[in-house]
């Protein structure tokens, strides 16, 4: 009997234990559910916020209204070549919606040397500068358009991450396909070629009507011989290497001072002939640095080459597009007859004496494209120049912030040309009247050549390059001034 | 006493290392003249400026005479002190004479003066000579202390 009672008690204890365990298990499950609910509640709590910043889809009427509204901004998220005027991705029309600003999705992810860039700025710092410059503040309504359905979304995500809440995207094909809606292109947008077009050309697919020149010669412009310059590490296929020392050889013009001025006309013509270029050709200037490419392009224009173009963004855009580089040297087929008497456009490059004469005229502006420190005489800008200051009468016109090789005020993050509206606004702030004849200058003509090219893209025709620049002016003992003009 | 001797030996070694580093730096600089436009331009500019302003034929002659005189002093000191010095001073004596020979060759060989790094080479050799001369004193005094 006692055994039975003990067995019953044991069974009861086991049942109690099992039931208790199950209850505990149930409690645990309830607790997990509770946690999940909390999480879920939290998610639900944040969901309304997500809904608030959900990217909406704008209509054509929304875009029209935004263009009229000062609290709204319309952004073009396509590559800057499309904004400039090229028909990209099979678009029926090139250019941008009039009044829209450029903010390419490529800037968010293109190749960018975060640590070794000339200005010492991270991508984020550069992009923050763009937000500030374009007045993209949190209270603005922003409509971002593209034609491929991905660029606008990428820019929208970025702007949302920066705290801009009212963001919509728009399929610009609707606008582009409607001929009644206005599009705007730069007058000479075709002076800057998209990497995709250069890629087509070097593969033998030259678009109909691209040029009426006899041949197309692609050049890669950079300092140094084939090996030292990096040309053999990779260049645009078929391109012939032009060493910048070949058009501005080191030479002593003033006792004891070596300089890199532009060579004489005869040398320049011979250089072109040696590289298979005549006046009847189309030259496409490429290279890692748009500075050097623009410099050579201006020389070609000056001598009278029929059709001269520069690849927008240099190798940065080429590489970002994923195109292959060629690593073997291309030997040019030398020519013997340039075809015309050079220089055919002598007014494109001003000499020191011409600048002195031009400075006496009212309708002339000498635009100084150097850093502010160089302009006010705090820095020479070069380790190979010892005089700091500026030419009296020159107007500050920006170039880079901290470095004499930088063009950050004239370029986007991917080294493509900055939008014309922004460049013109910058000039306006500097008091540069585009109705005047503008002669661009810098230290020795490189930075100014890129600005001159941009000016031509924007349609300015009364422009030139004072190529010898500050270095030659000061070395020759010409008068100069220093200091902040606003404090005088 | 021991402490001072060790300090002298440490400085001696440091100066030897600086001499090697100077040569290395000049070599790297010369290599960069064909790779970096900025280095190339800077060195071209500096070389032309120095050749025009400081390394004139007259100054080169004066510098050469000074070097020969220093070499003569070192030779005399070397013969007089050879048996009274230790290995450190002897090495410094020989290095000093080698630097003088290198400087004289640099000043008068066109193949050297044509190098873009030429002014920096002269500067490096001059500093190295100076350090070697100091090392003679350091080596000699350290040896004297030992005795």
Explained architecture:
The complex is a heterodimer of chains A (488) and B (147). Chain A has 488 residues and is an alpha/beta fold. Chain A has 3 domains: 130 residues, Rhodanese-like domain (Oxidized Rhodanese, domain 1), CATH 3.40.250.10; 155 residues, Rhodanese-like domain (Oxidized Rhodanese, domain 1, 3-Layer(aba) Sandwich), CATH 3.40.250; 141 residues, Rhodanese-like domain (Oxidized Rhodanese, domain 1, 3-Layer(aba) Sandwich), CATH 3.40.250. Chain A is 36% helix and 15% strand. Chain A contains 16 helices and 19 strands. The longest helix of chain A is centred in the N-terminal third of the chain and has 51 residues. About 9% of the residues of chain A have low confidence. The termini of chain B are close together. Chain B is built from 6 helices and no strands. Helix content of chain B is 87%, strand content 0%. By secondary structure, chain B is mainly α. Chain B has one domain. The interface between A and B is medium-sized, with 16 and 16 residues.
């Amino acid at each position: 009997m006692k055994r039975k009672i003990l067995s019953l008690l044991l069974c009861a204890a086991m049942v109690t234990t099992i039931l208790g365990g199950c209850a505990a298990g149930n409690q645990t499950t309830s607790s997990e559910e509770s946690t999940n609910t909390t999480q879920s509640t939290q998610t639900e709590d944040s969901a309304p916020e997500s809904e608030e910043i959900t990217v909406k889809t704008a209509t054509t009427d929304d875009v029209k209204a935004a263009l009229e509204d000062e609290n709204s901004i319309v952004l073009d998220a396509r590559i800057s070549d499309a904004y400039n005027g090229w028909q990209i991705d099979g678009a029926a029309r090139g250019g941008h919606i009039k009044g829209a600003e450029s903010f390419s999705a490529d800037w968010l992810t293109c190749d960018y040397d975060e640590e070794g860039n000339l200005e010492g700025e991270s991508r984020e710092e550069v992009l923050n500068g763009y937000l500030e410059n374009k007045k993209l503040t949190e209270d603005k309504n922003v409509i971002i358009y593209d034609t491929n359905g991905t660029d606008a979304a990428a820019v929208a995500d970025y702007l949302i991450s920066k705290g801009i809440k009212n963001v919509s995207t728009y399929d610009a094909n609707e606008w582009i396909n409607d001929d009644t809606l206005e599009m705007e292109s730069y007058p000479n947008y075709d002076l800057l070629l998209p990497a995709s077009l250069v890629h087509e050309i070097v593969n033998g697919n030259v678009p109909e009507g691209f040029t009426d020149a006899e041949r197309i010669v692609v050049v890669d412009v950079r300092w140094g011989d084939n090996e030292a310059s990096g040309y053999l590490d990779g260049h645009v296929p078929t391109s012939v290497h032009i060493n910048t020392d070949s058009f501005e050889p080191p030479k002593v013009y003033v006792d004891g001072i070596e300089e890199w001025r532009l060579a004489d006309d005869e040398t320049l013509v011979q250089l072109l002939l040696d590289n298979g270029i005549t006046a009847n050709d189309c030259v496409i200037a490429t290279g890692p640095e748009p500075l050097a490419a623009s410099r050579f392009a201006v020389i070609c224009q000056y001598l009278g080459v029929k059709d001269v173009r520069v690849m927008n963004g240099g190798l940065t855009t080429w590489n970002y597009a994923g195109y292959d580089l060629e690593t073997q040297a291309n030997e040019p087929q030398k020519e013997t007859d340039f075809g015309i008497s050079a220089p055919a456009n002598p007014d494109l490059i001003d000499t020191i004496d011409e600048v002195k004469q031009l400075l006496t005229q009212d309708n002339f502006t000498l635009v100084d494209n150097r850093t502010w420190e160089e302009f006010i005489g705090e820095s020479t800008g070069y380790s190979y120049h010892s005089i700091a200051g500026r030419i009296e009468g020159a107007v500050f016109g920006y170039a880079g912030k901290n470095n004499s090789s930088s063009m950050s005020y004239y370029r986007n993050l991917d080294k493509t040309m900055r939008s014309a509206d922004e460049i013109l606004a910058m000039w306006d702030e500097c008091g540069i009247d585009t109705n005047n004849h503008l002669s661009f200058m810098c230290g020795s003509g490189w930075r100014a050549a890129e600005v001159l090219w941009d000016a031509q893209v924007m349609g300015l025709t009364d422009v030139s390059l004072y190529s010898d620049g500050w270095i030659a002016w000061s070395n020759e003992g010409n008068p100069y001034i220093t200091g902040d003009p606003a404090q005088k | 006493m021991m402490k001072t001797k060790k300090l002298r030996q440490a400085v001696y070694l440091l100066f030897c290392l600086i001499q090697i580093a100077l040569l290395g730096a000049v070599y790297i600089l010369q290599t960069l003249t064909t790779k970096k436009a900025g280095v190339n331009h800077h060195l071209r500019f500096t070389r032309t400026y120095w050749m025009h302003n400081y390394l004139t034929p007259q100054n080169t002659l004066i510098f050469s005479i000074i070097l020969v005189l220093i070499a003569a002093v070192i030779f005399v000191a070397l013969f007089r002190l050879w048996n009274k010095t230790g290995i450190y001073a002897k090495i410094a004596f020989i290095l000093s004479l080698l630097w003088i020979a290198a400087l004289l060759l640099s000043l008068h060989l066109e193949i050297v003066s044509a190098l873009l790094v030429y002014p920096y080479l002269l500067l490096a050799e001059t500093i190295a000579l100076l350090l070697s001369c100091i090392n003679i004193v350091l080596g000699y005094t350290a040896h004297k202390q030992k005795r």
